[in-house]
């Protein structure tokens, strides 16, 4: 993963960490197609809350982030990139997945066995307000989607 120091420096009083990985490889269900996703990991300074945005890649045919949520999360925990109590959000960019003209952003909770359950879709703005984190930090790389909701 590469640190986005230039972006972290925009919000030093709010964020302790901002990491972006454009292509995180994980073991999906296919032995033929390599499985990948995009990840943004943010740590809020005030209480060390860890937030993960797991995004489906465009023009991608491997295992989806929905079908592999628990696999990706477990990989990140095993790599010591996130803690088990990290807040997880699944993201399908505009034009990817079922929504052709909009994005999808959903909270995902994991039970004690690591099994996921999905909440109701939220907007970048609503999530940023709820987490008290700049929407531009949450939606890094997907800034065009911020304008969709305006």
Would you kindly provide a written description of the structure presented here, covering whatever features stand out?
With 150 residues, this protein is an alpha+beta fold. It has helices at residues 5-8, 69-78, 124-131, 135-138, 144-148; strands spanning 2-3, 15-26, 35-44, 50-55, 87-92, 104-110, 116-118. It contains five helices and seven strands. It has a seven-stranded mixed sheet. Strand 4, helix 2 and strand 5 form a beta-alpha-beta unit. The model is unreliable at 1-6 (pLDDT under 50).
Short description:
With 150 residues, the protein is an alpha+beta fold. It is 21% helix and 31% strand.
Strand order within the widest beta sheet: 1-2-3-4-5-6-7
| Major sheet description | 7 strands, mixed
Q: How many strands?
A: 7
Which parts are unreliable, with pLDDT below 50 for 5 consecutive residues or more? Answer: 1-6
Shape: globular
What is the succession of H and E elements?
A: EHEEEHEEEHHH
The amount of beta strand, in percent, is 25-35%
Q: Averaged pLDDT, please?
A: 86
Helix count, per DSSP? Answer: 5
> Termini separation (Å)?
31 Å
Structural class based on helices, strands and sheet pairing: alpha+beta
Q: Report the radius of gyration as a whole number of Å.
A: 15 Å
Helix content: 10-25%
Descriptive keywords:
disordered N terminus; 7-stranded mixed sheet; globular; alpha+beta; about 150 residues
Topology:
Elements (H helix, E strand, L loop, with lengths): L1 E2 L1 H4 L6 E12 L8 E10 L5 E6 L13 H10 L8 E6 L11 E7 L5 E3 L5 H8 L3 H4 L5 H5 L2
Parallel strand pairs: 4-5
Antiparallel strand pairs: 1-2, 2-3, 3-4, 5-6, 6-7
């Amino acid at each position: 993963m590469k640190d986005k120091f230039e972006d972290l420096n925009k919000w030093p009083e709010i964020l302790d960490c901002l990491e972006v990985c454009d292509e995180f490889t994980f073991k999906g269900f296919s032995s033929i197609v390599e499985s990948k996703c995009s990840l943004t990991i943010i740590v809020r300074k005030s209480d060390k809350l860890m937030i993960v945005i797991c995004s489906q890649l465009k023009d991608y045919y491997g295992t989806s982030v929905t079908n592999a949520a628990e696999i990706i999360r477990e990989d990140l925990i095993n790599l010591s990139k996130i803690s088990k109590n990290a807040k997880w959000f699944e993201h399908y960019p505009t034009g990817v997945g079922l929504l052709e003209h909009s994005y999808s952003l959903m909270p995902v909770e994991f039970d004690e066995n690591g099994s996921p359950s999905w909440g109701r879709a939220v907007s970048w703005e609503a999530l940023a307000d709820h987490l008290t984190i700049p929407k531009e930090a949450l939606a890094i790389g997907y800034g065009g989607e911020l304008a969709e909701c305006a």
